[in-house]
Amino acid sequence: MKTLVYHGPRQLSLEDKEDPHAGPGEAVIKVEAAGICGSELEGYLGHSSVRIPPLIMGHEFCGTIVGIDYQSGALAGFSIGDKVVANPLISCGSCDRCIIGKRNLCRHRELIGIHRPGAFAGYVTVPVSSLYKVPQEMDAAVASLAEPLAVCIHAIKLGLPYLDDLIIYGAGTIGLLTLQAALNMGANQVLVVDRQEVRLHHVKLLGAEVATPEQVEVKAAELFAQRGIDTIIDCVGATAVRQQALELISPGGNIVLVGLGSDESPMKLNHLVRQEVNIRGSYSYSDADFKHAVQMLVSGKIRADGWLAKRNLSDGPDSFRALVEGKTEFSKITLHP
């Protein structure tokens, strides 16, 4: 099979590898679409300590089951020919975090595309327990958005109970999916902040208000008036964004941090204390979040037209380069073996 292998900063190569086989409790998926994640762009640049070359990345994917451990498959209701997406987060199931239902915080968690070969390949092997069926006629590129959409749903739930009005920083893939998930989950008025006009164009088409970082204070006052803003979701992770969010949030409000940009950010913590602001990190998702994401996609509630592009797996090196250099109008690129 053809694979896209990461060998170090800005080094990707197409290589032939042996087709994988299903072990106990596993299925082999013929990959139809695999999305390039922002975290993989960080890995491509050499900024990810967990992505150790040589590595086949790719954890957002959809495909068809072509091989399966029949006993596990039969028990779970899967068989060869099923079209599926997979939760790439693999937990131990026995640590204290798993026992209380927080598998995303498993002390021994692994991720497909980091700790085991991922989906930038013709085939990928995954646990049967990670699979979710999708309709055969569903666009595989859209179905592959299940993983990033689950990230967004998890962040929104952490921002509850304040969902009526919302500010989202960042209009990349996570920002656009957070916007759509929030509107589907009951948000009223949403303001999305970004610097790129092409991204803000997509936000407008999805029904939200927009602002650049320089405009956000005035725009927020105009939209939210005296009631202020109780929830901000940061999908960027830059220090300047975190600082501005703390200045904008209402007393007692929630700031949910999703973006993994700056590792350290100085902030006015005395202000945080005096205003009882809640700052929460949001990492990955629960099984319920992932299932919710699949349901939302299958029901057609998420639009990807205009900001998602499809490319061949052989175009992978050029696609990674275009995304990191900002030389594409698309927020998301899916690779197709």
TrEMBL record:
Domain Alcohol dehydrogenase-like C-terminal: residue ranges: 174-298
Signal peptide: none
InterPro entries linked to this entry: ADH-like_C, ADH-like_N, GroES-like_sf, NAD(P)-bd_dom_sf, Zn_alcohol_dh
The keyword Oxidoreductase belongs to this UniProt entry's keyword annotation: yes
Alcohol dehydrogenase-like N-terminal domain location: 23-136
Annotated SUPFAM superfamilies: GroES-like, NAD(P)-binding Rossmann-fold domains
Highest taxon, organism lineage: Bacteria
Record key words, sorted: Oxidoreductase
Coiled-coil intervals, chain numbering: none
The protein's name in its UniProt record: 2-desacetyl-2-hydroxyethyl bacteriochlorophyllide A dehydrogenase
